[in-house]
Design brief:
Blueprint lengths: L4 H40 L7 H24 L4 H23 L2 H22 L10 E3 L2 E9 L2 E6 L6 E7 L13 E4 L6 E7 L2
Antiparallel strand pairs: 1-2, 2-3, 3-4, 4-6, 5-6
Length: about 200
């Protein structure tokens, strides 16, 4: 028997619902990949030089977003509207992430939330006769692999920050000392003294 009129209408409606779900699912998936990639990148750049693993994962997720967009458009919808919508999501994610990073907002937030913990650790090092200390632990939002006291400063080195340079933060009540025994070093600060960011060549 040929299908009845009601059955044909039901099949058409079901087909349209499935198509609509696929069209919505694509941009939503693109948005999820883009948001995760942006958050990972901002987490990575909370320290000078960035941390390589989160940056790599962020790049992979951005590529996943682009691949999802292309796959969805090729298989289900080639219209300019859908292409533009998914592209806008990705470009907006790039733009917002770039602006936040450019204004050093992740670094400022990380330092503000970690300052109390850093000051406590600096006081403890100063009270321990200035001995070097290999920590390898989290202090606030920073993963620290070494703390030492030299030149009237307490030096914190960030773990896995940067590729060609070592990065860290120093507590220097008397101001940053000349880089005598620490190799070529540059001081820069986006936080108020006596805290200074530093970097030096990798040994």
């Amino acid at each position: 028997m040929p299908p009845s009129r009601s059955e044909e209408v039901g099949e058409v409606r079901s087909c349209k619902v499935d198509q609509g779900r696929r069209k919505v699912k694509g941009p939503v998936t693109v948005a999820v990949w883009t948001i995760l990639a942006s958050l990972l990148w901002l987490w990575a750049v909370r320290v000078p030089g960035g941390t390589s693993v989160p940056q790599l994962l962020s790049g992979v997720l951005f590529l996943c977003a682009i691949a999802t967009m292309v796959t969805q458009l090729v298989r289900h919808d080639r219209t300019i509207v859908k292409w533009g919508g998914s592209s806008l999501i990705i470009m907006s994610g790039f733009a917002v992430t770039f602006i936040i990073d450019s204004y050093d907002i992740p670094k400022t937030i990380a330092f503000t939330m970690s300052r109390g913990h850093l000051e406590k650790s600096a006081r403890n090092i100063c009270q321990s006769s200035g001995k070097s200390s290999l920590e390898g632990r989290w202090i606030g939002l920073y993963n620290i692999d070494e703390i030492r006291s030299e030149d009237d400063c307490v030096w914190f080195r960030f773990r896995d920050a940067g590729v060609f340079f070592r990065h860290g933060i120093a507590y220097c009540p008397e101001g940053p000392p000349p880089p005598r025994n620490l190799g070529p070093m540059r001081y820069y600060s986006i936080c108020s003294p006596p805290w200074f960011y530093w970097k030096t060549n990798v040994d």
